[in-house]
Design a protein that fits this description.
Elements lengths: L1 H18 L8 H17 L2 H17 L7 H5 L15 H6 L6 H96 L3 H31 L3 H10 L6 E6 L6 H21 L5 E7 L3 E8 L11 H12 L3 E5 L4 E8 L1 H8 L1
Length: 360
């Protein structure tokens, strides 16, 4: 747009200057030629075309001097091109027609040529600056998006590692309670049981039975707490990743898309189903690729185990597949087994809220 505006300004200068220095009947002819040539240069935007156009226009100026008044307009297109020195060709028609047009006209033409050069330099500098600005802005935006994405990944990884560390600490606490307090209570219960068997005093025996009952209740309470801690510390992604890493029968991929860990019953069921499915693949399949997908939806959890094997039988009444069906049915889920393209186990389990509603 800047170049078109510059060319319009130069054209108006040339037109005013030309009208004041001609009274020819064909006064409109140079105007049409100059406008057509300049318009073609702007439309084609090819350096070779502009150079050829400029050379032909210079040659025409030698035989038709009125075209000299519009030479700055044509020269504007080739200034700052690769072959800049070709601009010097404009001096030949001026020198040849020096006596045809007045010296003041030659001076003004040269002045307009210089003005065209300055305006072209300004337009090119402005376009270059704008291009560099847009490029820098796009680079900064792209870097900002990459930095934001990287920061998000780091935050997610940090949250996952923090959650994993918490789960591991819970597992450690549960293990230490089981190994220390649990064993001491078990030993105490056994010792009191032996004392009850050997005690002859009925009053003391009743007291020992009451103490034994209290210790048993405490043992049961600790056992329940240990199980709760261990169940909470079980991470579905970590356990699934361990199974995937230990599977060496063929290449296997894991697509895990769960933001919230499901209920412990669902976690244990999914882990057991994956173990059973991978064991069946090793025993019965000739698969060369296995894909496991764990995905969370608003109302359900989805587990898909797919391989490209051809030897497994969908209608088989094997214990493994029956166990998988029983686990899914116990959670009010749906299971679909297909062998159209490989062997696929498609399982959907209602989320905890939906599962509780089903039980009620």
């Amino acid at each position: 747009m800047n170049k078109l505006l510059d060319k319009l300004i130069i054209f108006l200068f040339c037109l005013v200057f030309y009208i004041q220095n001609t009274a020819d009947f064909y006064v409109i002819v140079p105007v049409i030629i100059a406008m057509s040539c300049s318009a073609m240069n702007s439309f084609v935007e090819s350096e070779y075309f502009q150079l050829i156009s400029f050379s032909l226009y210079i040659a025409a100026c030698i035989y038709f001097p009125p075209l000299l008044f519009f030479m700055p307009l044509i020269t504007y297109d080739i200034i700052l091109l690769k072959w800049q020195l070709i601009v010097l060709l404009a001096a030949f028609p001026l020198a040849i027609n020096y006596q045809t047009i007045s010296p003041i006209s030659c001076f003004l033409i040269v002045l307009l040529l210089a003005l065209a050069g300055l305006m072209k330099y300004r337009a090119v500098s402005s376009a270059t600056t704008k291009y560099e600005y847009i490029k820098l802005r796009d680079s900064a935006k792209e870097f900002s998006l990459q930095l934001e994405s990287r920061n998000k990944e780091l935050m997610e990884k940090q949250d996952y590692e923090k959650n994993l560390a918490t789960l591991q600490e819970r597992n450690r606490i549960a293990r230490e309670i089981h190994d220390s307090v649990g064993h001491l209570l078990s030993s105490s219960i056994l010792q009191i049981g032996a004392l009850i068997a050997r005690c002859q005093d009925e009053g003391l025996k009743e007291s020992l039975k009451t103490l034994n009952l209290t210790l048993s209740q405490g043992m049961n309470s600790i056992r329940d707490s240990i199980h709760d801690l261990h169940d909470d510390s079980l991470d579905l992604y970590t356990q699934t990743a361990i199974l995937v890493n230990n599977f060496n029968f063929c290449p296997i991929s894991l697509d895990y898309d769960m933001a919230v860990s499901p209920d412990k019953r669902i976690k244990y069921a999914f882990i057991a189903i994956i173990k059973e499915a991978l064991a069946n693949i090793i025993k019965h399949s000739n698969a060369t690729q296995v894909n496991i997908t764990l995905r969370e939806h608003p109302a359900l959890y989805q587990l898909i185990i797919k391989d490209n094997g051809t030897k497994e039988l969908v209608n088989s009444d094997g214990i493994g597949l029956n166990n998988i069906r029983d686990r899914v049915n116990s959670l009010n889920g749906n299971i679909n087994i297909s062998s159209e393209r490989g062997f696929v186990i498609f399982i959907s389990i209602p989320r905890e809220e939906s599962y509780e509603n089903c039980n009620h």
